[in-house]
Design a protein that fits this description.
Blueprint: E1 2-3, E2 9-10, E3 13-15, H1 16-23, H2 27-35, E4 49-51, H3 52-65, E5 82-93, E6 97-104, E7 107-114, H4 115-120, E8 128-133, H5 143-148
Antiparallel strand pairs: 1-2, 3-4, 5-6, 5-8, 6-7
Length: 150
């Protein structure tokens, strides 16, 4: 939701293709879910769209159902709450440090850690691992702002 020029709340409408990409599924899958009643699609007045808030709820539901959710450490074992599971794609070690790259869907995470930690965790390409992100600053941009800058 965002405000229009007069300050009134406007619900974000997201096109099917963009919504499917945000969920990591095909357009056809999202349409099948809509036909099954899992999410409402507005097909009036232009391209088919979904409500942004409904899409957010569905994204949370899908994340909870994901087989990857079982791979996450149990809650309470760390104060870091932003966790993502993926596969290690690259590890570069020197005598003191290691650079570890993790691919989680379309997202790439790079972590610098001690070589000892990487060795203890046996991090190598092909290992399934979880990145825990704890930061004092996380920047979130509105997607429309990026489009306007082009």
């Amino acid at each position: 939701m965002h405000a229009d020029a007069e300050g009134a709340a406007v619900v974000d409408r997201i096109r099917i293709t963009e919504a499917a990409a945000l969920l990591g599924v095909s357009d056809d899958t999202l349409r099948r879910w809509a036909d099954a009643g899992r999410i409402a699609v507005d097909r009036t007045g232009g391209p088919a769209t979904v409500d942004g808030a409904a899409l957010a709820a569905l994204a949370s539901e899908i994340a909870a159902e994901s087989p990857l959710a079982r791979l996450l450490p149990a809650g309470g074992t760390s104060s870091a709450r932003n966790r993502v599971t993926g596969i290690v794609t690259r590890v570069v070690r020197d005598t003191v440090m290691a650079q570890v790259e993790l691919q989680a869907g379309p997202f790439r995470f790079v972590s610098l850690m001690s070589r000892e930690a990487a060795d203890d965790l046996r991090l190598e390409p092909g290992v399934v691992a979880t990145a825990s992100v704890k930061a004092t600053t996380v920047v979130i941009e509105h997607a429309d702002a990026r489009k306007d800058a082009r």
